[in-house]
Hints:
The complex is a heterodimer. Chain A is an alpha+beta fold. In chain A, 23% of the residues lie in helices and 28% in strands. Chain A contains eight helices and 16 strands. In chain A, the strands form five sheets. In chain A, strands 1, 2, 3, 4, 13 and 16 form a six-stranded antiparallel beta sheet that branches. In chain A, strands 5-12-7-9 form a four-stranded antiparallel beta sheet, covered by helices on one side. Chain A has a two-stranded antiparallel sheet with strand order 6-10. In chain A, strand 1 and strand 2 (44-45) form a beta hairpin. In chain A, helix 4 packs across helix 8. The radius of gyration of chain A is 31 Å and the shape is elongated. The mean pLDDT of chain A is 87. By secondary structure, chain B is of the alpha+beta class. Chain B has helices at residues 21-33, 63-120; strands at residues 2-4, 11-17, 37-43, 51-58. Chain B has a four-stranded antiparallel beta sheet, with helices on one face. Chain B is elongated. In chain B, 27% of the residues are buried. Residues 103-121 of chain B have low confidence and may be disordered. The complex binds iron/sulfur cluster. Iron/sulfur cluster binds next to loops of chain A. Iron/sulfur cluster is lined by residues 277, 294-295, 297, 299, 320-326, 339 of chain A. Chain B: Keywords: DNA-directed RNA polymerase, Nucleus, Transcription. Chain B: Pfam families: RNA_pol_L_2 (PF13656). Chain B: Its main location: nucleus.
Amino acid sequence: xxxxxxxxREEKKFSIWDxxxxxEKLPPHLEFARTRVQCNLDxxxxxxxxxxxxxxxxxxxxxxxxxxxxQEKFRVEVKRLTKDDMEFDLIGIDPSIANAFRRILIAELPxxxxxxxxxxxxTSVIQDEVLAHRLGLIPIAVDPRLFEYISxxxxxxxxxxxVFKLHAHCKRGEPRLTVKTKDLIWLPNGSEYLLExxxxxxxxxxxxxxxxxxxxxxxxxPEFANNPISTLPDITIAxxxxxxxxxxxxxxxxxxxxxHAKWSPVATAxxxxxPEVVLLEDIEDEDAEALVKTCPVKVFDIEDIGNGKxxxxxxxxxxxxxxxxxxxxxxxxEKRVSLRRVKDHFIFTIExxxxxxxxxxxxxxxxxLEDKCERVFSELS
Amino acid sequence: xxxxAFGDQSNATFSITDEDHTLANAIRFTLNQDSRVTFCxxxxxxxxxxxxNVRVQTSGDPAREVLKDAxxxxxxxxxxxxxxxxxxxxxxxxxxxxxxxxxxxxAIEGVQALDIDSESD
Lengths: 381, 121
Ligand code: SF4
């Protein structure tokens, strides 16, 4: 009786009718190639991302990411968030889209940066053009969304320009003076330098013309009233020797990182794929010790399995840097340790320069991608 | 701008100005996800022109409509990314407050422990 049942089960195992009509899953080796990059000692393999919806049509597996499926699977995990940097995981997203966010963060999010410098006096050892370039790179802590772009024909006004002035003088007989960004003084009323041909002593009722035409003071605007515009305070602009002097006015305007890196709101924005480290066989005793010792970022730990025996285990795969030292422990180690990257799991890091907090930068970047699509969509309609 | 053979709407090239890999690569992904698409790709004719050509070939549907759907898909994906991200950040901020307190109290305990040690010395 029991034997007969056993036989039946055997028979069943081989019945073709038990196979599903439509396989839901790919065979394991293809699924592996689709979702993982395998990092071998010489080179990584399966690096391409297979996006074509019909890539596995011959196996009757649908490779498309339907929207509802995406919405079900996509996750974000914030790992670290401070005033000016953050790290988070984007899980279940294609590299093309993660990369679009990264590119927008670096090159297409606007900020304010110094574009024009009017140098009245500069007797320091720094040449005017070098000084102007240094000033351009100073991050200005102001929300760029409150300003408009200035075009060639626009006159600089309170909506598109921020003016700073600086006057530093190192007197004779004094030690050398370090000029820092906190010495920049915000001029909410605009430029104080008169245009050529203007007479400052003229008693006419109209204001003499300067290099900007502000219709009102910026600090009378509600967004800046209690919140004066400043730069990050502790950046060295120049060093002055005794007798040297710098006096200038700097005009900041809105721009984008693709025009010049000074407008980039991020120091860096990058991602890496989640590392996955797998031990293909049990690694014990001396081998385990050797493995633990070889990894510079301490990915492996030793586990006691009783009887005085030890076994290696993967404890911190996330910190793997892919140096591949563990594959070089000895010959054939490539068959014992497998290093992989998860293709749709991105560890995203954003370092802001200070204009906007990093989480706002990311949401703004996503909005910009949406706007781009909307533009194409409406152009096609 | 659309370039396609007269009378055949299922194959077309679209020239999009003021765009680059950022949009084109993302659009190519969503196009590839659409089962009506038999081929799609993009090229940038010259790196100093702000222009990208997107080629769409379909199994019958008008290429223009398919590209529009791809844009729409991308917009919806972005919206979902944004809402998920905002929620994750809010959750993190809410939990962070608690965590910070925990760390603080631990640090204080540590200090007290140290004090006791030094007294016993
Ligand atoms: S690749 Fe380098 S960092 Fe990664 S587990 Fe091996 S030894 Fe450690």
